[in-house]
């Protein structure tokens, strides 16, 4: 069975897309780059957490997020002894739409009022 890490590749593509947005700040762009680097490192089985913690402290959390998410996605996509991936074992997702979603605006539940206690 051929293993293709499509979930991680999609996440890397999403990070690259976010970096191209004109409306983000320099720090946000660096964060997306760090998250992408974490995903790429997880895919390549490289652990650069210590390096990122020391050399790129401001982006360490985003790198760690990408790295840990990438490792989790790899674990979910790893074939099990039965030949299925853990994601396939879960079966098809059953989406249950709340009943109020299909209602017209006049039938939707009233908005919730939240009080601030300052």
Compile the SSE list and pairings:
Blueprint: H1 6-19, H2 26-43, H3 49-55, H4 60-77, H5 86-89
Write up this protein:
With 118 residues, the protein is mostly helical. The protein has one domain. Helix content is 52%, strand content 0%. It has 5 helices and no strands. It has helices spanning 6-19, 26-43, 49-55, 60-77, 86-89. Helix 1 (6-19) packs antiparallel against helix 2. The longest helix has 18 residues, at 26-43. It is globular and about 50 Å long. The N and C termini lie far apart (59 Å). The model is unreliable at 97-103 (pLDDT under 50).
Task: Give the key terms.
single chain; 118 residues; mainly alpha; 52% helix; globular
Please state the average pLDDT score.
Answer: 76
Radius of gyration: 20 Å
- The total of beta strands comes to 0
Give the helix tally: 5
- The proportion of residues forming helix, as a percent range, comes to 40-55%
Low-confidence stretches: 97-103
Q: Helix-strand pattern, N to C?
A: HHHHH
C-alpha end-to-end distance? 59 Å
Q: Indicate the proportion of strand residues.
A: under 5%
Biggest beta sheet summary: none
**Can you tell me the overall shape?**
globular
């Amino acid at each position: 069975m051929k293993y293709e890490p499509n979930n991680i590749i999609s996440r890397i593509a999403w990070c690259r897309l976010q970096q191209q947005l004109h409306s983000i700040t320099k720090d946000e762009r660096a964060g997306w780059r760090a998250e992408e680097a974490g995903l790429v490192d997880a895919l390549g089985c490289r652990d650069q957490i210590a390096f990122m913690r020391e050399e790129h402290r401001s982006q360490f959390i985003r790198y760690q997020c990408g790295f840990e998410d990438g490792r989790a996605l790899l674990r979910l996509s790893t074939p099990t002894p039965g030949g299925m991936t853990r994601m396939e074992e879960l079966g098809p997702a059953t989406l249950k739409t709340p009943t109020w979603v299909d209602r017209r605006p006049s039938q939707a539940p009233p908005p919730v009022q939240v009080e601030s206690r300052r």
